[in-house]
């Protein structure tokens, strides 16, 4: 009995930049990098809250870079276990970024009266880019889970 379902695999080489869910690595880098830069450039009022935001942005930026480099090199070798790793990572990154975006919004609201206008604008921009990064990770997570389910 043969299966009519096509085998799903992760892309290798520059095809990483042409397949849809993996193309989302680029906006993840851009939005995550902007969150990292904006939070690092503002005055930190709540160390634990904004420390979490910095941890999430640096962690996701680093691991997305590592994952994309591994895909470029073809280190996954077409194994289906890498599809599960991809789905797990993007699920965790989406959850982490959602928590970071909410905490950054909380910190921004809390300091709106005591911060300078420039600092407040940078905090607002960090919140917007954190939610955009969350959205891209959620979309990537959804398509990674669909790829994992069909593998």
What would you note in describing this structure?
- Keywords: Lipoprotein, Membrane, Transmembrane, Transmembrane helix.
- It holds the Pfam family MARVEL.
- The chain crosses the membrane at residues 23-46, 52-73, 94-112, 124-146.
- The chain has 151 residues and is an all-alpha fold.
- The chain has one domain (39-149).
- The chain has 5 helices and no strands.
- The chain has helices spanning 20-23, 25-41, 47-73, 80-110, 117-149.
- Helix 3 (47-73) runs antiparallel to helix 4 (80-110) and helix 4 packs antiparallel against helix 5 (117-149).
- It is elongated and about 55 Å long.
- The chain starts with 19 loop residues before the first helix and ends with a helix.
- The model has no long low-confidence stretch (mean pLDDT 86).
Features:
151 residues; mainly alpha; 5 helices; Marvel
Write the layout of secondary structure elements.
Layout: H1 20-23, H2 25-41, H3 47-73, H4 80-110, H5 117-149
Q: What is the structure about, briefly put?
A:
This is Myelin and lymphocyte protein. Helices cover 74% and strands 0% of the residues.
Task: Give the C-alpha Rg.
Answer: 18 Å
What is the distance, rounded to the nearest whole angstrom, between the alpha carbons of the first and last residues? 18 Å
Biggest sheet details: none
Mean pLDDT: 86
Count up the helices: 5
What sort of overall outline do the alpha carbons produce when their principal axes are compared? elongated
Query: What sequence of helices (H) and strands (E) makes up the elements?
Result: HHHHH
Backbone structural class: mainly alpha
Residue ranges: pLDDT <50 for 5 or more in a row?
none
Number of strands: 0
Strand content: under 5%
The percent range for helix content is: over 70%
Count of all domains: 1
